[in-house]
UniProtKB/TrEMBL annotation, chains A, B:
Residues 39-58 bind DNA. Pfam families: TetR_C_11 (PF16859), TetR_N (PF00440). Residues 16-76 form the HTH tetR-type domain. PANTHER family: HTH-TYPE TRANSCRIPTIONAL REGULATOR RUTR, TETR-FAMILY TRANSCRIPTIONAL REGULATOR. Keywords: DNA-binding, Transcription, Transcription regulation. This is TetR/AcrR family transcriptional regulator. InterPro entries: Homeodomain-like_sf (IPR009057), HTH-type_TetR-like_transc_reg (IPR050109), HTH_TetR (IPR001647), Tet_transcr_reg_TetR-rel_C_sf (IPR036271), TetR_C (IPR011075).
Length: 196, 196
């Protein structure tokens, strides 16, 4: 950095560094020790900050955990815009399958369905919100005429993502590229424009 | 019953009555109190039988719980054979949605994904086995020429069932007939025979 570049205020930079360190520690503890291990005290110790700083910034343990999950998943699940609905969906759902294939991704999903009396039930809808962002890929496909005008974008996203979640949570079956391709193609063929 | 009808041996009848009473008590306790509440002792007390009789018949708590779940779900999830793949699938998945819409069905699904150190992990695959029985409906559709010859029957069943499970476990969104119809029609259109 040269002297002529505007530097961020030192306080803001320190705040952002602290935020990243705390969120990384929270994701790490959630993945390795589950909800019960991710107390504010444990996260603060792992991040090397004071517990009071964590409370000052996030207010509650719940806010901290939701912020950690959101930050982690939003960066792991970009929504592509290639101009072709099939490529967009293959890209997005390959990322989701990869994420759910990691120990961390599985832990995050698993703790989303676990009961925890210390947290309000705001964790489940959180995955739905991630998937809501994927709906735009289908909408663009409809607008370009690649898919039928009466396509239900949310339903299509559910039909592709549902089996991925279920394999992790219930059957333990593998997530691979062939599965993602099979699900995307089945759903897309089902949503093709139909002759009158 | 008239005197001329052959009667089941009294012992066998008593054994079957005991089996049903114990399984009903197990399902009831699983639904209302979860895995931790469904101990062999509690089930035996609720069914009015001796704990030793339960151990003599099922051997382990795990076998008892799996037997209870299997009996409950197999009778709640018949696999229709109407001669039309769409009617078969609508019938089957409407039953599944209805089951998952009851407090009992939700509890059974929820405990399938809960960790429990006292049980080996044989509960998840159990749902997959139930769905495996559904695959035959798609196979018959392929044989009748209603669906493309290269249809993957397991994948189609996953694409319809996945969203139902995910709605219960993650999003909390409703399961209704319109959802079942939408998912069945999307998947079936995706599997229609295609012109060469």
């Amino acid at each position: 950095m040269t002297a002529s570049e505007p530097a961020a205020p030192p306080l803001r930079r320190r705040g952002e560094r602290m935020r990243r360190a705390v969120l990384a520690a929270a994701v790490d503890l959630l993945s390795t020790q589950g909800l019960t291990g991710a107390t504010v005290g444990a996260v603060a110790r792992a991040a090397g900050v004071h517990e009071t700083s964590v409370y000052r910034r996030w207010g509650t343990r719940e806010n901290l955990i939701l912020d950690a999950l959101t930050t982690e998943l939003d960066s792991a699940l970009p929504v592509p815009d290639t101009g072709r609905v099939r490529d967009d969906l293959l890209g997005f759902f390959s990322s989701l399958a990869r994420l759910l294939g990691t120990a961390q991704g599985r832990a995050l999903l698993r703790l989303s369905v676990e009961h925890d009396a210390t947290l309000e039930d705001r964790r489940g809808p959180y995955w739905s919100e991630r998937l809501d962002r994927a709906v735009v890929m289908v909408r663009r496909g409809v607008e370009r005429g690649e898919l039928a005008a009466d396509t239900d974008p949310g339903l299509l996203i559910e039909a592709v993502s549902g089996p991925l979640f279920v394999r992790v949570l219930l059957s333990g079956a593998e997530l691979d590229d062939a599965l993602v391709r099979g699900l995307v193609d089945l759903a897309l063929r089902g949503a093709l424009p139909r002759p009158e």
